[in-house]
């Protein structure tokens, strides 16, 4: 029995997001000096290209997270983001390190 070769499709997607102006974060006041929860929002344009074609759409996003102060200069953060642009929905989880110049 002869096997036909398997075809592999590779999709290359390039995406650029420009959210200007970025809406301010709302920081919730807690009786805690170390953990700082916040909510955020964004408005802007998303441009994506694939296979020689490109598309730019208006989008918006909402999210929230918390920053944790490790010491006076360093911290860590975790946040969830939900973005919608012309029917396309993106959900993301971000983790980061914060450095304060103050």
UniProtKB/TrEMBL annotation:
Record InterPro entries: Beta-barrel_OMP (IPR027385), OMP/PagP_B-barrel (IPR011250)
UniProt keyword Kinase present: no
Keywords linked to the UniProt accession: Signal
Database matches in Pfam families: OMP_b-brl
SUPFAM superfamilies: OMPA-like
Residues in Outer membrane protein beta-barrel domain copies: 25-101
Protein name stated in the entry: Outer membrane beta-barrel protein
Key word Signal present: yes
Gene3D superfamilies: 2.40.160.20
């Amino acid at each position: 029995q002869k096997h036909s070769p398997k075809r592999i499709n590779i999709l290359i997607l390039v995406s650029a997001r420009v959210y200007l102006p970025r809406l301010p974060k709302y920081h919730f006041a807690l009786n805690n000096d170390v953990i700082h929860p916040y909510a955020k929002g964004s408005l802007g344009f998303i441009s994506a290209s694939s296979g020689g074609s490109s598309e730019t759409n208006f989008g918006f996003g909402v999210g929230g997270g918390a920053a944790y102060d490790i010491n006076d200069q360093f911290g860590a953060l975790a946040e969830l983001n939900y973005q919608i642009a012309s029917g396309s929905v993106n959900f993301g989880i971000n983790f980061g390190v914060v450095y304060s110049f103050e």
